[in-house]
Amino acid sequence: MSVLMVTGTCTGVGKTIVTAALATVARARGSSVAVVKPGQTGVAPGEPGDLDEVARLAGVDDLHEFARFPDPLSPAAAARRAGLPPLRLADVAGQISKLADSRSLVLVEGAGGLLVRYDAEGTTLADLARWLNAAVVVVARPDLGTLNHTALTLEAMAHRGVQLAGVVIGSWPAEPDLAMRSNITDLETIAARPLAGVLPAGAGALDPAEFLLTARAGLAPALGGTFDAATFRNTYALD
Ligand SMILES: Nc1ncnc2c1ncn2[C@@H]1O[C@H](COP(=O)(O)OP(=O)(O)OP(=O)(O)O)[C@@H](O)[C@H]1O
Ligand SMILES: C[C@H](N)[C@H](N)CCCCCC(=O)O
Ligand SMILES: [Mg+2]
């Protein structure tokens, strides 16, 4: 049993796609996988949320969303605007612990980036990770601006004693520009380790069978495998 959290350097960086990729690879290895989205914002009741995307891509049906607020804001702000009580991550920690007792892997996708607030006290995914002693995958963009966002996220994690599982690039384009090619090297320096994975832009549009193959190729290290850096570098002519 283990709990792996997925955060990002910002919203919209590909956390849901990476969560689905981790889930599909783990399931293909025979693991029982639950996926948790503690607080879903920006989606109306009855509309498909991030967990529905994970279900579609990875075939997971063990899905747990603990609160939903329609405004496309942080969970704290969205709850406030809806006039609803905020989600208590301390309660969510207890629920995740229970799930982890009977699954090989529980994946938890945060809302937005690491320090997005869930309540008026400023509880964040970093608190949840620390309470559960869970490592965190950081999903980063490949393009200009990502070095600073990634460095800030990793520094905030280190400062709070949150363990880094690895940095994954959520959406790598077929035609990377100079900044992207350079950033690959610098992201590895910032993380002080090789990238834990890279998913191609467009991975989210694949059918589930193709998505599994893509996820396997791009994400093995985040689940204890080896990332084939040489193949990746050759594919994208990075050297
Ligand atoms: N590798 C990818 N392939 C295809 N589409 C992608 C990929 N990565 C991201 N996207 C698209 O970019 C958008 C944002 O991605 P995603 O929903 O995974 O972001 P997120 O980090 O989970 O955001 P949120 O904070 O809302 O949870 C989505 O519309 C998604 O379909
Ligand atoms: C609505 C969006 N897609 C996410 N669900 C929530 C993102 C919150 C980001 C808050 C912020 O850092 O400004
Ligand atoms: Mg998401």
From TrEMBL:
Enzyme class: ligase
GO terms for MF: ATP binding; dethiobiotin synthase activity; magnesium ion binding
UniProt binding sites for Mg(2+): T16, D52, E109
Needed cofactors: Mg(2+)
Catalytic activity from the UniProt record: (7R,8S)-7,8-diammoniononanoate + CO2 + ATP = (4R,5S)-dethiobiotin + ADP + phosphate + 3 H(+)
Major subcellular location class: cytoplasm
Pfam families: AAA_26 (PF13500)
E.C. code: 6.3.3.3
Catalytic-site annotation from UniProt: K37
UniProt keyword annotation of Magnesium present: yes
GO CC, alphabetical: cytosol
Self-association state and partner proteins as the record states: Homodimer.
Free-text function comment from the UniProt entry: Catalyzes a mechanistically unusual reaction, the ATP-dependent insertion of CO2 between the N7 and N8 nitrogen atoms of 7,8-diaminopelargonic acid (DAPA, also called 7,8-diammoniononanoate) to form a ureido ring.
Name listed for the protein in its UniProt record: ATP-dependent dethiobiotin synthetase BioD
Species, as recorded: Thermomonospora cellulosilytica
